[in-house]
Amino acid sequence: MRTWIYNIGCLAGVDTHGKLRLQGEEMAHLECIKEAWLLLEDERIAAFGRMAEWNAACGQTAAGPGQVDVEVDARGGYVLPCWCDPHTHIVYAGSREGEFVDKIRGLSYAEIAQRGGGILNSADRLHRTSEEQLYAEALERAHEMMRKGTGCIEIKSGYGLNTADELKMLRVIRRLKESLPVRIVSTFLGAHAVGRGYSQPAYVDLVVNEMIPEVGREQLADYIDVFCDQGFFTPEETARILEAGAKWGMQPKIHADELASSGGVVVGVAHQALSVDHLERMADAQIETLRGSRTMPTALPGTSFFLNMPFAPARRLIDAGLGVAVASDYNPGSTPSGDMKFVISLACIKLRLLPEEALNAATLNAAYAMGLSREYGSIAAGKVANLILTRPIPSLAYIPYAYTTPLVERLFLRGKEWTM
Ligand code: NIG
Ligand code: FE
Predict the structure, then answer these.
(1) Looking at domain 2-81+378-418, which of 1.10.287.70, 3.20.20.70, 3.40.640.10, 2.30.40.10 is its CATH number?
(2) Which of 192, 228, 277 to probe ligand 1 with, by most ligand atoms within 8 A of CB?
(3) Mean of all residue pLDDT scores within the chain
(4) Which of 103, 148, 253, 260 is the most buried (most CB within 10 A)?
(5) pLDDT digits over 340-386, tens only?
(6) Closest ligand to residue 193's CA
(7) Which amino acid residue places its CA nearest to atom 8 of ligand 1?
(8) How many of the other CB atoms lie within 10 Å of CB of 307?
(9) CA nearest neighbour of 24 among 400, 318, 342, 352
(10) Looking at residue 194, what DSSP letter applies?
């Protein structure tokens, strides 16, 4: 099937260099073609160029190339690669607005967790919820994210906290993977908190000796994550868990430095983590730890916003020559939102990223942080056609500027329009 999208006001995020990630000053460049067309062939991007050149080549005005199956008049809207969201926890049961009110009354995220709320609260609910119901709730969240322009989603387990419930979560993720046209990758996060009824060492043993082999045997996870932070898991425990995961081919993506400078960045980089995420309390020394590594620092500004916490030092990371990705962290406790456009606005407003930097952080670098940037995250011939078409807008900067205005008008996933 061939789809021709024409009258594109601006085709943004064009990549002619085949870069898998952008670092430092590269992040401020987002290649654009004004007055463009784009040709999709089946699931993939086939070609693109300028309207004027197309018209000259064909001696036509705005007519399609003749042999296309679908013609889409973009009416001056912008076309961009879909948002990639490399850190979410969208498989969960119910909601936790009670804790939201507790926080307004003055309790901190860590205090709520210490009182048995937080992640354990979600684990109790998940335990009582059927796989079917969990799937229905997660599907609704995924649809909500898609309507806002997200085309690649990483989803973590971590509200099971016993073997059966962790597997239940991962099966829900697998079902989402199989049923949705978005690209989904799954991450095993058994070490999200110590499950009820276990001592800390007994729980780490359970993760290493029972959960990881079962997840591995069923091939339920692409990646492995640990909440390496004060009050959760130590760098030593994290290293042990990552080494056990590596035996089953699970690459690490780590929760680090959210509650304290936790040592998570060091252990993540030492284990070739694809990303280290959160970093709200990352010390400047970790910039040197990250330099030269394959690890993508990933900021979650929605979490800082929702929890009233410090923001990750994304500006300093980019100024030091490193890359940065952003993600929503969509979860019931620390940020119940998967709105990547709002995340892009927060990246500009709170992380002090330029619009081009924020857009690169939410597309190519975000795809890199989930191991997908060969196939997603930019406009390049051969990449999967997961695309956003906006309503007509005056400039790229308008996207983060109009911070609550819905701009995504149409969505193409695997080369086909998805009805919003
Ligand atoms: O990334 N920080 C750890 N995990 C999640 C929050 C989980 C929860 O509160 O339910 C996060 O913010
Ligand atoms: Fe998270």
Answers:
(1) 2.30.40.10
(2) 192
(3) 96
(4) 253
(5) 999 999 999 999 999 999 999 999 999 999 999 999 999 999 999 99
(6) 1
(7) 333
(8) 17
(9) 318
(10) P
